[in-house]
Write a structure and sequence with these properties.
heterodimer, A: mainly beta, 36-stranded mixed beta sheet, B: 6 helices, 18% strand, globular
């Protein structure tokens, strides 16, 4: 059966007798074979398609008008962040029962205890050694900011300060400020014990090896500094900040240790963390409720940072990140504030309420929505950087396919945009350069300090458009408000031209140097092509790039792309040549060419 | 050779209906003649078809081995090619010679023409072809058709 089946496939019935060749199928190659007999047709084909090839290579038509889609981020404005803050109920404070108005120092094992009364301390209270300050069912009116005063560079104590192994114990009490805000500082190995305590507008600052033990309390703000150890349970903390204020910012902006913080059954409204010492921070949806959450494991920070552990706790707002000598990599998540000093920032597909780069920082932002983007020489409170000349601090930002609601340019900044939408912009004390594709949406220039001086150079691209293709050779000129031509040019073979315009405020621009203020002026760009003229007004933070001059008519060109023409001609030449070689040299001819 | 050279139009009509398996009475009803007239015409037709097949075999130097004039088919042997030969007669194709050999239909320009002829041969004899059979190379399709006409081929 198998053999029979095989034979049936091999043998069959045919009208042609065996040995008689069947009529061959005709195809294109057979046609070409016949077409290429002799040299005349071959040479004609080579000349025709060689000419087409030469034309397609040598005569380059202007490119088609590129079609670009609007980035998704443009239609999605990032509103000012809605801080969800639970207002404190009013705290009624009666006349103080006890007033301490003199500078007081507790030493050794001295103790100061209060119970069922209102206590006002209006001057320095310094606790040293093993001394204790105890409140039971009290209202404690705390003096103005504790620790070092901002303006005090000699490090004198002020307010309420705990040092050495001193202790603050507060039970069932309320702390209120004497003025708008107050603070209590803990240094050395001091300890703070809070149980059922409400701190209204009162900041607790911890540094060195100081410790906090809080239970059932409401704490306005905790600033954890150095190697402090904080344990907070069943409480609400409106702001938990790492290494932000009090002492270290003045004397040691690059900290070497990290506080150890444990929060259990606690709500933290705002979590601010500082990433320092050449660390790398990779964020991917790192905040929110967690059954168990650790800053090292969940934020992927490679370096010293607050060792924060959340147990059945949650962070209600996005992270506030502060970095120095570090790198941030934020993707697919939301941050509240990202403040970078001498750092690198990479943001992709993210939202941020504010991004600030300063002190030789750089930022790369893609496909993101930023409410406020700022560049500055340095953050205002880093006093140490005042000793470094501003001109050495350069900020560089590359932003693409993103939307910014508010752009603040300051210092020496270089901004490279690619399809960026800026809803509002301002500038002060800056030497800045803006390049690339940007759309400004504002009606007036806001200058915070018109006498501070600035210069902003924007590099504008001019696109001269026809109906379908770009127009090369359009004549362009830029005139100031007095009609003086300050730039002229011609659009290139791609229909593009580039010019720079420097907007100034009290800035020495030209020799002999005198202050120029022109940021409120309007320039006129004029384009002419084949007798048609188009104009476009140019002004600061109103005119985006590219500037489109639409002439709505094309220069004469073939209706087919040159690359298609080139490939077609090359293909034909190759095929015909191969067939000619085959027909002439490789295949014996069986038909006559009229030799007989 | 055109079939009308062998049979009249009326005879061809009767021939086609007979090949499809209709009875003489049915053919008579369709053509408005008596069964006897159909019987008489069939006798004449079979003689003519057999003569045509034999004549075609002789013209091609084929030795007849088996003739079925009712199905219009002759199986013979060609001493020249030393292979079997089949000669068919149909109303639409007339006399057609088929050589048993190793053809390569993929190279032949007449492949569609050949297939069309075979389909007509099958239809005229009431042989039903499936879609996959209709897509076979004509050499294989011919084998399927002739198998059903000459058992054991």
């Amino acid at each position: 059966m198998i053999l029979r089946g095989f034979l049936q496939r091999l043998f069959g019935w045919c009208p042609m007798a065996p040995g008689e060749a069947p009529p061959q199928r005709s195809n294109t190659l057979n046609f070409l074979d016949g077409f290429l007999v002799g040299w005349r047709n071959y040479l004609i084909t080579m000349i025709v398609f060689g000419s087409i090839l030469a034309y397609s290579v040598l005569v380059v038509p202007p490119p088609l008008i590129p079609v670009s889609s609007t980035p998704d981020t443009w239609g999605d404005a990032y509103d000012a962040y809605p801080f969800e803050s639970e207002p404190l109920r009013g705290v009624v404070v009666g006349e103080p029962d006890t007033v301490i108005s003199d500078q007081t120092v507790l030493e050794r094992d001295e103790a100061l205890s209060f119970e069922d009364q209102t206590v006002l301390i209006s001057d320095l209270l310094l606790l040293k050694d093993d001394s204790r300050l105890v409140f039971r069912n009290c209202t404690f009116i705390v003096p103005d900011y504790s620790g070092y005063r901002y303006e005090d560079i000699f490090h004198e104590f002020a307010g309420v300060v705990f040092n050495d192994s001193s202790t603050l114990e507060a039970y069932d009490s309320t702390f209120v400020p004497l003025d708008r805000r107050c603070g209590i500082g803990f240094m050395g190995s001091s300890t703070c014990i809070l149980d059922n305590v409400v701190l209204v507008n009162c900041t607790l600052g911890f540094c060195d090896d100081s410790r906090l033990h809080a239970d059932n309390s409401y704490i306005q703000e905790v600033e954890a500094d150095r190697a402090s150890s904080l344990w907070i349970r069943n409480s609400t903390v409106k702001g938990l900040r790492q290494d932000q204020t009090w002492r270290s910012r003045w004397v040691n902006p690059v900290k070497a240790e990290a506080p150890d913080v444990v929060c259990e059954d606690t709500v933290i409204d705002l979590l601010e963390m500082r990433v320092v010492n050449s660390s790398q921070c990779i964020l991917d949806d790192a905040v929110g409720y967690r059954e168990h959450w650790n800053s090292y494991d969940d934020m992927h920070i490679d370096g010293r940072v607050m060792n924060l552990t959340l147990i059945r706790s949650k962070v209600t707002n996005p992270l506030f990140l502060d970095g120095i000598f570090s790198a941030f990599n934020v993707t697919g998540t939301e941050v509240l504030i990202l403040q970078a000093l001498m750092s690198e920032v990479y943001i992709d597909d993210a939202d941020a309420w504010m991004v600030s780069i300063a002190g030789n920082s750089s930022a790369t932002i893609r496909d993101s929505n930023i409410y406020s983007f700022r560049t500055a020489t340095h953050h205002h409170y880093y006093e140490l950087f005042r000793t470094v000349p501003d001109s050495t601090m350069h900020q560089h930002a590359e932003i693409s396919e993103s939307r910014i609601e508010s752009l603040s340019i300051s210092g020496y900044s270089d901004l490279v945009f690619d399809r960026v939408y800026v809803a509002d912009a301002d500038i002060s004390e800056a030497e800045a350069k803006v390049t690339g594709d940007v759309t400004w949406v504002k009606n007036s220039v806001r200058i915070y300090n018109p006498y501070s001086g600035f210069a902003l150079t924007q590099v504008y691209e001019v696109d001269t458009l026809g109906e379908e293709r770009m127009i090369p050779g359009a004549t362009l000129s830029l005139m100031d408000h007095e009609g003086i031509v300050i730039w002229s040019g011609v659009s290139n073979e791609n229909g593009l031209a580039v010019f720079n315009l420097t907007y100034c405020s009290h800035y020495g621009l030209y020799e002999p140097y005198h202050y120029v203020t022109n940021y409120n002026d309007t320039w006129t760009l004029t384009g002419t092509f084949e007798g048609d003229t188009r104009t476009h007004e140019v002004s600061l933070f109103e005119t985006g790039s590219p500037i489109i001059l639409d002439f709505s008519k094309d220069a004469v060109a073939l209706p087919i792309d040159n690359r298609v023409l080139t490939w077609f001609a090359v293909s034909v030449i190759l095929i015909v040549t191969v067939c000619k070689v085959k027909a002439t040299f490789l295949q014996p001819r069986t038909f006559t060419e009229g030799v007989q | 050779m055109l079939p009308s050279a062998y049979l009249t139009d009326r005879q061809l009509e009767i021939w086609s209906l007979r090949l499809k398996g209709l009875s003489k009475a049915e053919i008579g009803r369709r053509l408005g003649v008596t069964r006897q007239a159909v019987y008489d015409a069939e006798g004449i037709m079979l003689d003519k078809v057999e003569s045509a097949l034999i004549h075609a075999a002789e013209s091609n130097m084929v030795e007849p081995r088996y003739v079925d004039s009712a199905k219009g088919i002759l199986l013979g042997y060609s001493p020249q090619t030393q292979q079997r030969v089949i000669i068919t007669f149909s109303a639409r194709n007339g006399v057609q010679t088929w050589h048993y050999q190793q053809p390569d239909c993929s190279l032949c320009s007449l492949v569609s023409n050949c297939r069309q002829r075979l389909v007509m041969e099958a239809e005229e004899r009431g042989i039903t072809l499936s879609e996959s059979e209709r897509r076979l190379p004509p050499s294989e399709l011919a084998q399927r058709i002739f198998e059903s006409l000459i058992p054991g081929i």
